[in-house]
Amino acid sequence: MTVLVSGMAGPAFSKEKASSQVEHLLEQEKGELEALRKKIEKQDRELSRIGKEETRILKTLRHLEDRKKLRERELQIYQYNIHVNEKRVGEAKEAIARHKKRLGQYKLVLRDRLRQIYKNGDMYLVKILFSSVTFNQLLTRLKYMENVMAYDAVIFQDYMEQMEKLQAETEKLEKSQISLVRYEEEALEKKRQLEEEAAYKSQFLKNVKTKKIYAMQTRKELIKASEGLNQLIGRLEEKLILKQGLSLEDMKGRLQYPVKGKRLNRFGKKWDDRFDTYIVYNGVNLGVKAGTSVKAIFYGKVLYTGFLEGYGNLVILGHGNSYHSLYGHLNSIQVKKGEVVEEGKVIGLSGNTGSLVGDALYFELRHKGKPIKPSPWFQVAGK
């Protein structure tokens, strides 16, 4: 239902009282401005600290990245050396295998000779020598046997020496391989530690940047609030010079709700499950026990008192500059039409007349006849 209101509450208080009110609010706002300035300075210090911390972490990350690259280079060297070493070990093992095969073949020849010597006993060489027909043949056979035995001894000794060298080289290479693998594992572990440290620092840097963004946003909001306060202080100082009183607009964001109660609905167009339709709320219902004192939110003039369908017992106050406040569902009204009331004066007791939500105070704020959202005008929104 639309409520038609008219008239305007003029400055009904003395200029001395109006000036006193302005001075009081001016002192409050100057104090709040000083507190905001200190908060801004604190945020500046915090931003400076965060900036230094961010620079330090970035420097650490660059250092960690350089160290990680060094470890990666070390790994490449170790892996290359391991590859070369593996190849050498393989080649050495192949050479040992070849020598073993040849030595094995030669051992077979020597074994056959030794078997013949063993079968023929100690007279083996004597038999070979004395079976010669001529002396020259004897000398030839003797020379031949000496050469064969000397050759066999040299070859056998050479193979044994080569085997020992190859075996020693293989053992050396295998030990080197073990060392290289250990170094590789150490390099991998160091690289892993560096990556973990870098990941931790990166996450920490991310957190620092988040804190920086939050601090910058907070500082921005504080500066905006301080600018608003500066404007208000300017208006209040001008009013003080002109000996003018406060207006409702001067108190935006500083008003107290007429009662302390739970908000039962939100302002504006909302869906209502009970009625399965949209309902437009021009004000808010504040849940309070019946008989709770209802106070004027600001000084003004009583423009209307009485019962109005949908509102129950209703009081309308005019606050000047086309601002009005409405108080509905009252059990009793304690002011009269035309009366001028101060901020905080009890204008009635809450109840449930005309209410669909039980005991509650219906409150509405209007400007130029149109409902406006009340929460931005009060110190504690949503109460």
Automatic annotation (TrEMBL):
Q: What keywords would UniProt list here?
A: Coiled coil, Signal
InterPro entries membership: Cell_wall_metabolism_enzyme (IPR050570), Dup_hybrid_motif (IPR011055), M23ase_b-sheet_dom (IPR016047)
Coiled-coil region(s) at which residues?
19-53, 156-193
SUPFAM superfamilies referenced in this protein's UniProt entry, alphabetically: Duplicated hybrid motif (SSF51261)
GO terms for molecular function, please?
A: metalloendopeptidase activity
Q: Where is the M23ase beta-sheet core domain?
A: 282-374
Which Pfam families does the UniProt entry name for this protein?
Peptidase_M23 (PF01551)
Q: Does the keyword Membrane apply?
A: no
Gene3D superfamilies xrefs: 6.10.250.3150, Glucose Permease (Domain IIA) (2.70.70.10)
The protein's matches in PANTHER family, at most eight in alphabetical order, are given as: L-ALA--D-GLU ENDOPEPTIDASE, PEPTIDASE-RELATED
Name of the protein: Putative Peptidase M23
Q: Which organism is this protein's natural source?
A: Nitrospina gracilis (strain 3/211)
